[in-house]
Amino acid sequence: MRLKFNWVAKALAAIGLATVSAGAPARLPADPRPALWKVADRDTTIYLFGTIHLLPRGANWVSPALDRAAEESQGLVVETIVDTANPAPFAATMMRLATSPGLPPVLDRVPKAKRAALATAIAKSRMAPAALDRMETWAVALALLGPQFGAMDLHQEEGVEMKLKQRFTAAGKPIGQLETNEEQLRFFDLLPESAQQSLLLGALESPGAVKTQFDAMLGAWGRGDVAAIARSFNAEMAGSPALENLLLKQRNANWTRWIEGRLGQPGTVMVAVGAGHLAGAHSVQAMLEKRGLKVTRVQ
User: Fold this and answer.
1) CA angle 185-238-48, nearest 5°?
2) Domain that holds residue 26
3) Strand runs (DSSP E) across 171-218, as ranges?
4) Is the whole model's pTM more than 0.85, yes or no?
5) Mind listing the pLDDT tens digit for each residue in 29-67?
6) Euclidean distance between the first and final Cα of the chain, in Å?
7) Any idea what DSSP says for residue 155?
């Protein structure tokens, strides 16, 4: 199995909003205003910005309010950081978590009615079926997302996190992470098989349906329509409580505790995570407010 950084970006995009398929690339509104919040006390400000992990080339999403927040921030914190200059440790972690002995053939892990679609997706991926048979179902699902991204004008290097990291690096500002690579991948690894199969079936959705969904989510993100983002994201999770619990609720709870702890240090920092984590009843903001913290919408 080839484990390049671009594949990593595609895999991790499943956590957020970037699930796409063939067709004309989606476009942002002419005057984008993606949602931005802040949590602050006397000597600390933490900006919360929801991101999309892959975007078309030349996408414009920086508004005056976001520009000011980035300028004020003394550091950036993202979900996780993959060392592109030394990807071997990540590859080793991925291989260790993604493969297991004695697994049934991957075609046997989906209903008979879906096996032809899965076989077609495997052929498009150009991965050896024998290699996929050794992979756990969640890893197969993420691997099969690759051709969908390749067919669209969407790129990890154009994604919000990458652009923000470039900006903060150029300014000499530090970049941190909320999760290690292993911690993030382990959330997938801990999913029960039924939830892993839900992920795999999701990777087999028709191109037209997936593109329609992505276009709607991208438009909602660009407009700052958090309610629409929540509806889309919740629809993805509705069929599997395990997916919602592990990939959304538990991670949001972890990040909420981190933010609460970070308020104990003076200064200003920007936290940029997948926009789905900042929308809905189980959002980071909702969890912060339950802990008695005030969250203010900046944009």
Assistant:
1) 60
2) 5-94+143-186+208-297
3) 175-177
4) yes
5) 778 899 999 999 999 999 999 998 878 778 889 999 999
6) 42
7) B
